[in-house]
Design brief:
- By secondary structure, the chain is mainly alpha-helical.
- The chain has a three-stranded antiparallel β-sheet, covered by helices on one side.
- The protein is globular and about 50 Å long.
- The N and C termini lie far apart (38 Å).
Length: 155
C-alpha cells in the first residue's frame, strides 16, 4: 500500500510505494499540484505491482534507452549505424535527461520536436528517422521490461 503526501517547498504531490524484493520504498513526483492526479498515479503503480509488472528503474532516462537502441543496432549489424548515432545525439539534446517513465505530455513533446526540426529546415525524412529511432528505443525497452508501458507516438 502506498501513500500520497506533499513535500515541504514543493507544489506537487508525491507518492511513496514499495516494490516487492526491493529493500527501500520508491518515491515519485506526480508532477501535478492536484491530489487527484497523485491518487490516479498511485493506483496505476499499485496495479502494476500487484500484477507483477516489472517497473522501470528510477534512474532510467530516454538517453539510456537511446544508447541501448544503438547497441542493439550495432549487434544486429546495421550498416546505417553512423546515421543512427547522429540521430540519437540529436534526440538526446532534447529528450536525453527526461525520465523514461515520465509519459505525461510525451506525445505533445514529440510533436513539438518534429515541428521545431521542420522549422529549422530539416528534411521530413530525417525527422521521421529520428522519431522512428526514438520509437524503436522505447519498443526495445518495453520488451526488456525497462519501462512499464510504451508511450503513445503521434502519427
Amino acid at each position: 500500500m502506498g501513500t500520497i503526501y506533499k513535500r515541504k517547498g514543493s507544489q506537487f504531490w508525491w507518492i511513496k510505494y514499495q516494490v516487492p524484493g526491493e529493500p527501500k520504498p520508491r518515491y515519485e513526483s506526480s508532477k501535478s499540484p492536484l491530489r487527484e492526479d497523485a491518487e490516479k498515479k498511485l493506483k496505476v503503480v499499485e496495479g502494476d505491482v500487484a500484477r507483477g509488472k516489472t517497473l522501470p528503474p528510477v534512474a532510467c532516462t530516454v538517453g539510456d534507452l537511446l544508447d541501448a537502441a544503438i547497441l542493439a543496432q550495432e549487434q544486429k549489424g546495421n550498416r546505417s549505424i553512423k546515421d543512427s548515432r547522429r540521430n540519437a545525439d540529436h534526440l538526446k539534446a532534447t529528450f536525453g535527461k527526461r525520465k523514461a517513465s515520465d509519459l505525461i505530455g510525451f506525445t505533445d513533446a514529440v510533436r513539438q520536436y518534429r515541428q521545431r526540426c521542420l522549422n529549422q529546415d530539416d528534411k521530413p525524412s530525417t525527422v521521421n528517422r529520428r522519431v522512428s529511432l526514438l520509437k524503436f528505443a522505447f519498443h526495445l525497452a518495453a520488451l526488456e521490461g525497462r519501462i512499464g508501458q510504451m508511450p503513445p507516438f503521434p502519427p
